Structures are given as C-alpha cells and as structure tokens.
Sequence to fold (533 residues):
Amino acid sequence: NYMCYANSVIYAKAGGKGRASSLAIVGITVALFIFGPTLASYVPRCMAGCLLLHVGIDLFLEGVYDSYGNYDYLEYGGIWLITLVMVLFGMSAALIAGAVAALSTYFVQSVTYQHPIKGIISAETLRSSAWNRRLEAEAILQSRTTGRRKILVVQLQGHLFFGNVALVSDNIKATLRSKRGTDEEPLVVILDFTLVHGMDSSAAQGIARLKDAMHKQFRINLAVWVSGCAEGFPCEYNLTGELSDHGATKGLVSSPETAPWDDSHGAREDTTGLFQTPRMSGVSHECEVSLKTAVLSASIPSNHVCDSLDSALIFAEDVLIALEDPTLLDDDIEDIAQNSNIVLSCNGANLNEEQGRALQYLAKLCPGSSHIVQSCNGASLNEEQGRALQYLAKLCPGSSHEDLGKLFLLFEREQYSKGAIIWRQGSRSDCLKLLVVGTLVAVLEDEESMKEEIIPGSMLGELGLVTMTDRLSTVKCTSENVVLYSMSRSKWDLLVKDDPRLARFIDLIVVRYLEHRVQHVSNRIFETRCLPV
Fold:
C-alpha cells in the first residue's frame, strides 16, 4: 500500500499526465520488479525507513491536517478515529473503524439534516424582475393555460449526499407523475439549488440522472437549473457542464404534442439557442440576434443553467411567451413602430429623437393606454420621445392619449456623463426621473456590495417624491451618456393640486413598484412575510 501510494504521489508531484507518462511509470515499475533486488543491495538500509517516514507524514498532513475545516465535526471526528485505530491496532482494524465511522455519519446525517426539498410549488404567484412587459405578454403569463402556472419550481436545501439524493429524485418524480395529464402538467421545471450548502459527487451524478428522467419519462420540455451563485453548483463534480445543453436540439422531446418548439423552420444543429443568456433586465436591449428570429428557428434548449432564481424565472417566462407569440419578445423600436398605432405630436412642438424615446418609455410605464403615442397635441415626436411615451403608457394603467401628453409636458430633459452622481443617499427627494438613455446603478453607502442596475424605461425617485421621504440609496451613472427626463417637486405639487386624477397615475406607479418588490421571487428563497394576500 505504501509503495502504491508513494508512486501515485511522485507521479502527481512530478507533473505526470497523459498516456505517455502512465506508460513510463509502468515501464519503470516492471524494470524495478526485475532488477530491484539487485539494486537494493547498493541502497543503505536507512533509506527505506526515511521513505516510510516521509510517506507517513505526507498521509497524516493530507488526511488530518489539510482536511480540517472541510468537513463537519462528526466527519472530522471519524478521520481522527481511523488515525488512532491505525496507530494502535494496525491497518485491518482501521478499515473496520472506517466502515463504522461512515455508517455512523450516514445515520446521524439522515436523522439530523433537514429535508432536502424545501418546497415544490407552481410559479403562478411568483414574479421576476422582468415585470414591465407588454400587455399582450403579461396576458399570456397570467393565463391559466399558457402562463406561469405551467412552470413548476422545486426548491432544494441543506446538504445533498448519497443518502438523500434518491429521496429528492423520487419526490420530484412523484409530483410530476401526479400532474401528468392534468391542466397543471408543467412545461417548464425550475430546480433551485440556492439554499444547498454542499453536494457530494454521488448526489451530483444523481441530479444528472434526474435530468434525463424528466425529459424521457415525463416529457418535460425545458429544465432550468439554478446554481445559486456565479461560481456554479456547490460540488467538485462538473454539474454545470453535465446539465447544460451545448446544442439547440440536444435533448428536445420529439413528439409534436409535447414539444411545441419542435423544429419546423430548419434549425441548424450548431445553433447555441435562443435563451443561452437569460433575458435579464440589463441584457435584453443588447441582444445581437432578434429573439423573434431565434424562436422561429426552434433554438430553445431543453436544459439551461442560471445563477439565480430570478434569471431562471425570466428565462422560463420568455419561453412561455415565445411559444405563443415570439414577436412579443422583440423590443426593437422599429418593430414596435411597424406594429403599433403611433402618432407623433405633442402640443404643436417638434420633439427630437431623444425626446421621442423618452415619451415612448413614459408610455410603456402606463399600461392600458388606448394606443402607443407618437404624437402629442399636434407636435411630431422622434424615436426617443416615442419610446419614452410607450414606457410611460405601460406604467400608467388606464391612461389616454391626452393623459400621456399632459404628463410628458411636465418632464424636463437632463444629461449626465459616466460617474456622475444623480443623488446621494439621505438627500432630499425633490424630483422623480425617467431613464431614457444609458444605465444607472443604485447602491447603499453602508454596504456597497448591495447594488441594483437601473435600465432604460425605468422610473426612479417616485417613492420619495410622493411620500416626501429622503433618498434611500445613492444613484450613479454607469454609461458614457445618460439621458433622464425629470419631474420636479414644484410641478408635482402643482399636478396634485390642479389635476389629482392625473397625479393618481404616479401614485399607481409607486404601488406597482412596491408590489413588484414584495412579490419578487427572491423573497421566497428565505422565510419572509412578503406573501401575496
């Protein structure tokens, strides 16, 4: 045993790898077996003792010293038990002690560890960060036949090891079996590992086998795996690579009834898939390929790995929307102009491209408007203004063409450069702003690691303006060029006094933002009181 271990250590520390190195070791071992006795007569006897001492010290450091902190107290106590028994009673007794320690550890872990499944729920009450979608897309997601109800979320927790991974697999299969053939049968399954602290290789391989079972036995069209962090799953096994699809058609269910995104448009085998990068809030406007085109080429993967539950839910929502109408995922302003009733006028004033985009964003923030406006009281609006108005309309339910025009006239254009501070935490709330061009980031000064990206089409500062509270975070510019449209407190106060009905739209924007944060999917990861009532 010592000789085999010594050979392995020398091989590893000498940088041995590949077939040539292995064959060289075999040749040297054969030569020593033949000529070793002759050569041993020329080696001092103390050399053998030195080698055994070196191997013993190396074994102790690797097995006892280096492993400290990598195991819990029970497992580390088992290592010391094996070490002491080996020293006092020899190798055979140590093997028995190792078996007893392993069985005892398994028994205690099975009794004391929490159940590996925290919950299995439908995503019907969950909300992602992509909350300001088109009305048609929201209608699809809220439908009981095509919406979030078709997404099944499985949240795992604690430690996954060889003793409980079978329980995980059996419970998930039982749930899928019970929903088969019902109106609750899922199209998408999300498995969330955010609360999993550790996973041994046996558990990781069991999860990989579960992936195949879900696709083959239960005809799950899409499985989304949430690692919980950017570094991947909490195990040494390459689970991320095992669960990812490297081709668009890999693992897809071929049955037309169970594969609604089956290839009917000549998809290529080497395509990387429509949603290989989740349509996150800060990524969607940077996509190089039209989402609509990718969906029509049948390039949705059957497996996808995300690092957060939020990005996984966005991904799943995009798939459900794509199955009904992939054009709803295309945020290209030219497509919007071609498919919308757009008028360009605003109180007789000619608006430039930037103002048009601002107006479109404003319209998008006010859902329920009669149509997307590219005109405001007779004045021609450019692309930027039209986009701003669209966002405003999506944020303001029930707003009309005249309402949006009046609101838009209360905004003034502001421009900033990269690194500029829009406002600081604790400062007075004297305005609200609509982001039209560029990106911002909101940070907490006491904890800079807590930050949130703000993308075009977002409104910020509305809570402080309405409730008259100081700024809750510091907002900075992260783009080279940032354009904001701002409503001052004086104009807000005048609006509340002269037109309370119109001011109500801003109040509703505040409510919608707060509703989004309360019902955000991240609130379901840990125990909170943020539940829909």
